[in-house]
Amino acid sequence: MKSGDFQDIQRRMEGAINAFKHDIASLRTGRASSNLLDAIQVKAYGSDMPLNQVATITVPEPRMISVSVWDKSMVGAVDRAIREANLGFNPIVDGNNLRIPLPELNEQRRKELVKIAHGYAENARVAIRHVRRDGMDFLKKAEKDGDISEDDHRRQSDQVQKLTDDTISTVDSLLSGKEAEIMQV
Question: 52-56, 85-89, 100-104, 143-147 — which is least confidently predicted?
């Protein structure tokens, strides 16, 4: 396997980790974060737009998110989009601004968030195993075609497996950190 092929496998596995990091960043932990509103789409100017394209999102306090809407006519649509996102937020409209106080998470909701985080982690593991399978298939084909020897195939398979194991352990450590963060009262 040429170094470019191995780097491609590495890059794809890192992509799975980055997608997982993005997914768990949107989970609420009791502390305010602008990432909590990333998934919200606002009906604006005849189409659905991400909230961050119609407003500025800031975190002035640990348990408060502030949304400054740029166009006054969009305040109602932004308010509606946040309420309909089923995140448990009730924005307080104040002119062009919306203040979103974060309610305390109860034990049941914390456990639900941990389950969601575990689902995201499993999706990341599956994506990593798909990359591993592609790499192993490539090596089998290269050996069959005579491009690499049996010894090279075994050595490079071990490299791909070690990369897979390391990447999955990174996902597991990120998951346990997020789980501890969610369950912290």
Answer: 85-89
